[in-house]
């Protein structure tokens, strides 16, 4: 089922009230208006994820919890303002993995591909691939530049560290945590019945970016394994 205006409205009111009793009394609305559409989108994306990487886990359990981690509550806010899901391989060596993600909030929605926090060894490996014009790196950047829906983001350095590189490469090289994403506050997109198709189409377009990140991560893991033998 598509999202309705009740989804962002619920997230806003629940966050603003910050009242556990109110949430429990309105949990049915949360499940119907937020959880069901999120889980249905995961189900819709599952075949595509399997084609991109059959190790990606697509499960309804991938939807984030609305309650914040009690260990991180210092401001008295019990609930998250946004809800998201992240589709990735099972976590192994690195806490953070390359992922396809989607979120909604009272203000916007969005999706993309990247890391929550790319491990330093993986960052360096991705940069090496770009500098060496590895086929996976060129394919990923070509895929990004061939579309106009998602933008490149992710903590750029203040100083250009690669002044002699072409712009198409330095845009990636000069970021601590490169990620491609789309965000929107367009209600026609948010509440339209074509949202799942749009997200799937964008994920398919940027699959080479995911493949570059996975190649880098797998290479780092193989090197570490070799060192421990």
Keywords:
229 residues, BirA Bifunctional Protein, domain 2, five-stranded antiparallel beta sheet, globular
Q: What does the overall shape look like? A: globular
The CATH class name reads: Alpha Beta
Radius of gyration: 19 Å
Write the CATH homologous superfamily.
Answer: Protein of unknown function DUF1054
What's the total helix number?
9
Which segments are poorly predicted (pLDDT under 50) over 5 or more consecutive residues?
none
Read across the widest sheet, the strand sequence of neighbours is 1-2-3-5-4
Please state roughly what percent of the residues sit in beta strands, choosing from under 5%, 5-15%, 15-25%, 25-35%, 35-45% or over 45%. Answer: 5-15%
Give the CATH architecture: 2-Layer Sandwich
Q: What's the helical proportion of residues?
A: 40-55%
Organism: Ruminococcus albus SY3
Protein name: TIGR02453 family protein
Can you summarize this structure?
The chain has 229 residues and is α+β, with helices and mostly antiparallel strands. 48% of the residues lie in helices and 11% in strands. Strands 1-2-3-5-4 form a five-stranded antiparallel β-sheet.
